[in-house]
TrEMBL record:
<dbReference type="GO" id="GO:0009074">
    <property type="term" value="P:aromatic amino acid family catabolic process"/>
</dbReference>
<feature type="region of interest" description="Disordered">
    <location>
        <begin position="1"/>
        <end position="44"/>
    </location>
</feature>
<keyword id="KW-0663">Pyridoxal phosphate</keyword>
<comment type="similarity">
    <text>Belongs to the class-I pyridoxal-phosphate-dependent aminotransferase family.</text>
</comment>
<keyword id="KW-0032">Aminotransferase</keyword>
<feature type="domain" description="Aminotransferase class I/classII large">
    <location>
        <begin position="106"/>
        <end position="492"/>
    </location>
</feature>
<dbReference type="Pfam" id="PF00155">
    <property type="entry name" value="Aminotran_1_2"/>
</dbReference>
<dbReference type="GO" id="GO:0047536">
    <property type="term" value="F:2-aminoadipate transaminase activity"/>
</dbReference>
<dbReference type="InterPro" id="IPR004839">
    <property type="entry name" value="Aminotransferase_I/II_large"/>
</dbReference>
<dbReference type="GO" id="GO:0008793">
    <property type="term" value="F:aromatic-amino-acid transaminase activity"/>
</dbReference>
<dbReference type="GO" id="GO:0030170">
    <property type="term" value="F:pyridoxal phosphate binding"/>
</dbReference>
<dbReference type="InterPro" id="IPR050859">
    <property type="entry name" value="Class-I_PLP-dep_aminotransf"/>
</dbReference>
<dbReference type="InterPro" id="IPR015421">
    <property type="entry name" value="PyrdxlP-dep_Trfase_major"/>
</dbReference>
<keyword id="KW-0808">Transferase</keyword>
<dbReference type="InterPro" id="IPR015424">
    <property type="entry name" value="PyrdxlP-dep_Trfase"/>
</dbReference>
<protein>
    <submittedName>
        <fullName>Aromatic amino acid aminotransferase 2</fullName>
    </submittedName>
</protein>
<dbReference type="GO" id="GO:0019878">
    <property type="term" value="P:lysine biosynthetic process via aminoadipic acid"/>
</dbReference>
Amino acid sequence: MTANNSFVHENLISKRASKRSNARTSSAATEDAPAGFEPHPKPLALHRGMPNAGFFPIDSIDVNLVEYPFQKSLSIPITNASVESFFPDEKSVSRTNTVTIKKVDDPEYVDISTALQYGSVAGIPQLLQFTQEFINRVHKPAFEDWDTVITSGAGDGLIKAANLLLDAGDVILVEEFTFTPFLENIEDVGGIPVPIKLNLDKDSGKELGLDVEYLSDLLANWETEKPGLPFPKALYVIPSGQNPIGTTQSIETRKKVYKLAEKYDFAIIEDDVYGYLTLRPFQKPASIFKLNDFLEVDDFIANHITPSYLTIDKSGRVIRIETFSKLFAPGLRLGFIVAHKRVTTVIKNYASDVTRSASGTSQLIVQNVIAKKFGGVDGWLQWILKLRITYSHRKDLLLNQIFESAAYKKGFLEVIDPTAGMFVSVFIKLAKGVDAQAKLKLLNYKFKNFGVGVIPGITRTVDKKFSEDRSNFYRLTFAPAEDDNEITEAGQRFVEAVEDFFEKGLEY
Ligand SMILES: Cc1ncc(COP(=O)(O)O)c(C=O)c1O
């Protein structure tokens, strides 16, 4: 990092960080040693209240894995799913589907005696190293002094980011439709979320999602637009597979937003929990499920995953939130943060007061499965490619159901085909002058009556009034369905409910 960048970063911590964060220090005791003091090279521990691993009831764990999602339940024919086609070069990787986790193991792996012991606040070193290799491979930051810290999932990462930056009365910019639990985190620290308009108009000719022009104008005219409010300290974005809209910001948009962050000196919290789950553009679902479309990992990284804000961050102002929830399993409660070392240090100080380390069992499972079965970063990306193709197939099933429907053909609906993530937003086309929110509320009852659960857009707003005109959509997801039939059936119920609603003149 250059001196100038250090200075900017110094600002992020000393000027942009909350008073709470700046006041927090490491809890390690420091004592004044007498002159000539030499610590013993191998002290024995009578001071730490940690049970020896011999007290643990577990000696080893066998984790039995599948080769691909739904391996045991996929009902339609599949093709080219052989192990070799997925791991052509990984000779060292276990060919069996069992990963054995030992009480004591080689230093390359996390063993039971380490993982089930009290652990480092930063995370277990082998997993931390994996996260760093992973970020280096996929989203190498444009500044040098970055680090990772393990969290208990993205939700925990977000709480820590809010705590890091915001004092009571501080302003944070948030996309107008968002992951609403983060609004609670902002409220908890007394922050004030200010919505940023999203462009949802397909006819506008502009990229869908965050409206950069709106953001730029708002910042340029802050004092007149938001009289009495302090200048924003941060922007919170979900740049890929946006929840709830499903849009993904192009790298050009990210560069423009970053430029504004540099100009107006605010931090960017990048919540990229869906960034690796890229999706193919819609294609009619085939009757044979092609499990492998032979996308190479290099091609996946270069041409499918949109680079993180970190890759354009020269001054260490980006705080990237990652999770294993969407790629491995949400119940692990495991994720990580990537940010400047000074930011991760402050986050670790906070973590040592609240969560301490993330679950050792979760770290144990994830690190061993990735190291022993997938063979590291590229093998992990190959697993993600299998998720990608399975999610793409599911998304196509749902979209196909919509595109083939009378409701769609009659123009009652419009859809955004997402290029990442788990969400499809479906817009209901209501004529001008109709009381849209009253009608959408009624329609939601119709969905319940037809037996399909959806999320009304209005429930995902920062400010209902601000977003009323753009809230004429429902968020649908193809993630939780048991199988393909459930997706097509749910899609069918959805479109039939819409058609019925319009046929009855927008009445229940
Ligand atoms: C945008 C976004 N951020 C964060 C999370 C929380 O993820 P985690 O399970 O890792 O806490 C979710 C989960 O739905 C999400 O959609």
